[in-house]
Write a structure and sequence with these properties.
heterodimer, A: 243 residues, alpha+beta, Protein Transport Mog1p, Chain A, 2 domains, 10-stranded mixed beta sheet, two-stranded antiparallel ribbon, 31% helix, B: 186 residues, mainly alpha, Rna Polymerase Sigma Factor, Chain: A, Arc Repressor Mutant, subunit A, two-stranded parallel sheet, 71% helix
C-alpha cells in the first residue's frame, strides 16, 4: 500500500530528526523543583548552614543523594535540545597546538598573550591555574571576525580546547563584548537556568554534548563539552566561576 | 554508561553490551515497539530481537547515534511483526490510524510523473522535514516515526490535542504538495 511505503521510508530519514523528536525519559516538573528547593532550605535552616543548596537532576533517585550531600552551592538544570543546526561563519581562526610556543614565533605568541590578558583581565598562566588538573590543553585558538566598522578582522573570541584522559573534550570560548560566536545554532524556548556559585548559567544537552552559556566577570562564555559527564561539566564551571 | 563505551563492548564482543544496551535503551525500544504493536509481550520480544540484531551488525557497524540506530531496528522489527499479524487481525496500536492519516499525503495520479526508488523518496522526506519548523517537525516525527498517540504528543508539547491534529494536518498537506511538485508517484 502507498501509505505503508511512506511509513516505511520515514523509518530511513536522517537520524537527527529521530533523535530530536525522541520522547524524553524523565521530564522535569517545576512542582518537583519547588518541593526539593523547599526541603533543602529547611535542612539548611536546621543545620544552621549559610548556603541554601539544591541541585535538581533528572533522575529522582539521585535527588535524595544530592539532598543529603548538599555542600555545593550549585544548581543544575539541563535543557534537553535537538541536535543544533549548522551555520556558516565568516571568521579567521588562528590555532596553536597545545600552548602554542612550538609553532608560532615568540613575538606572535607574546602579542596573543597581551590580547588574552586584555580580554580576560588575567594572564593566560593564571587562567590555566583555574582549570581542573584533569583537563589538558589541546588547542589554543583565537577567532577573528569583522566586528568593527572598518571591516577588518579583529579578535572576537579566544577558544581553548581541553581533553581529559577519558577523551572528554571541552571547548571554552569567551568574548568581552557579546556572546562568543558559534557555528551550531541552539534552539530552545524559555530555557531553565542553572546556578553555579551564584552565577546564572544556561545549560543545554544533546547526544553526548553539553553547552553552557553564561556571563561572569565582564566576559561572556560558551563552553561546549563532548563525552563529559554532568559532574565533570559542573566541576569545570565551578572552577571558572570561582566564589 | 556512555554510548562510546557500549559500542566498545559490542566491538570487543563482550556480552555486557546487551545488558548495558537494555539498561540504557530498553525502555526507548519498548516504547517504539509498543506504539506499533500495543502488546507488552510482543513489544518485549521486539526489544530483545533488537539487541540480537545489534549484536549481529556491530561490528562492522559503528553508529554515530546509538539510540537512533537501535530505534530504527526496533521500528522495522515491530512493523514486520505488525504485518505478520495483520493478515489475521487489525492491530490495536496506532498503526491503523497512522496509515489512514498518511493516505492523505499520497499525490493524485494526474499530478505525478514517475515512481521513485526508496532512496529518492527518503531524500524527499528529509527535504520535507527540513522545511518544517522545529516544533512541527517534532510533532510529525512523534506521530509518524514513533507512532505516539495525539494525546501523548499534546501532553509532551503542552498544547491541546486539536492543535496537534491541526499541525499534523498542515504537515501532511505540505508533504502532499511537495510530492506533487516533485512529480513523485508513490
Amino acid at each position: 500500500m502507498k501509505n505503508e511505503r511512506i511509513l516505511n521510508n520515514l523509518g530511513q530519514v536522517d537520524e537527527k530528526y529521530i533523535m530530536e523528536a525522541a520522547p524524553k525519559k524523565n521530564k522535569n516538573k517545576n512542582g518537583n523543583l519547588l518541593t526539593w528547593v523547599s526541603m533543602v532550605a529547611c535542612l539548611c535552616i536546621v543545620a544552621g548552614s549559610v548556603f541554601a543548596v539544591s541541585k535538581m537532576i533528572q533522575n529522582p533517585q539521585s535527588q535524595d543523594k544530592d539532598i543529603t550531600n548538599s555542600l555545593e552551592a550549585n544548581y543544575i538544570v539541563i535543557n534537553e535540545i535537538g541536535v543544533p543546526s549548522n551555520a556558516d561563519l565568516d571568521v579567521v581562526i588562528s590555532s596553536y597546538i597545545s600552548d602554542g610556543l612550538s609553532d608560532v614565533s615568540k613575538k606572535d605568541w607574546e602579542q596573543t598573550m597581551l590580547e588574552f590578558k586584555r580580554f580576560m583581565g588575567i594572564t593566560y598562566d593564571d587562567f590555566k591555574k583555574m582549570i581542573p588538573s584533569n583537563w589538558e590543553i589541546e588547542y589554543f585558538s583565537s577567532m577573528s571576525a569583522k566586528v568593527y566598522e572598518d571591516n577588518k578582522y579583529m579578535i572576537h573570541d579566544f577558544v581553548l580546547t581541553y581533553r581529559t584522559e577519558n577523551n572528554s573534550t571541552a571547548r571554552i570560548s569567551f568574548c568581552p563584548f557579546e556572546a562568543p560566536l558559534r557555528d551550531l545554532f541552539v534552539m530552545c524556548d524559555n530555557p531553565k537556568q542553572s546556578e553555579i556559585n551564584g552565577v546564572p548559567v544556561t545549560i543545554y544537552g544533546y547526544d553526548n554534548c553539553y553547552i553552557a552559556q553564561f556571563s561572569y566577570n565582564n566576559l561572556n562564555y560558551d563552553i561546549e563539552t563532548k563525552d563529559a559527564t554532568e559532574e565533570e561539566l559542573e566541576t569545570l564551571l565551578a572552577a571558572i566561576i570561582s566564589k | 554508561m556512555e554510548d562510546k563505551q557500549i559500542l566498545d563492548l559490542y566491538w570487543t564482543r563482550s556480552e555486557n553490551a546487551i545488558s548495558e544496551t537494555a539498561n540504557k535503551y530498553g525502555r526507548y525500544c519498548h516504547y517504539i515497539a509498543f506504539n506499533i504493536l500495543h502488546n507488552d509481550e510482543d513489544s518485549e520480544e521486539c526489544t530483545n530481537d533488537t539487541y540480537l540484531k545489534a549484536w549481529e551488525t556491530m561490528p562492522p557497524n559503528r553508529p554515530d547515534k546509538l539510540s537512533a540506530f537501535l530505534g530504527k531496528i526496533t521500528r522495522n522489527l515491530a512493523l514486520d511483526k505488525y504485518r505478520l499479524y495483520n493478515t489475521q487481525k487489525r492491530g490495536a496500536g496506532q498503526i491503523s490510524f497512522v496509515l489512514d492519516e498518511l493516505q492523505e499525503c499520497i499525490p493524485t495520479a494526474n499530478n505525478t510523473e514517475h515512481i521513485v526508488d526508496d532512496l529518492m523518496l527518503t531524500q524527499v522526506l528529509n527535504q520535507f522535514l527540513a522545511s518544517l519548523s522545529e516544533t512541527k517537525r517534532k510533532i510529525f516525527m512523534r506521530r509518524y516515526w514513533y507512532l505516539s498517540t495525539v494525546k501523548e504528543i499534546s501532553q509532551d508539547f503542552n498544547i491541546s490535542e486539536s492543535k496537534v491534529k491541526m499541525s499534523l494536518l498542515r504537515s501532511r498537506k505540505k508533504l502532499k504538495i511537495l510530492l506533487e511538485k516533485e512529480g513523485i508517484a508513490i
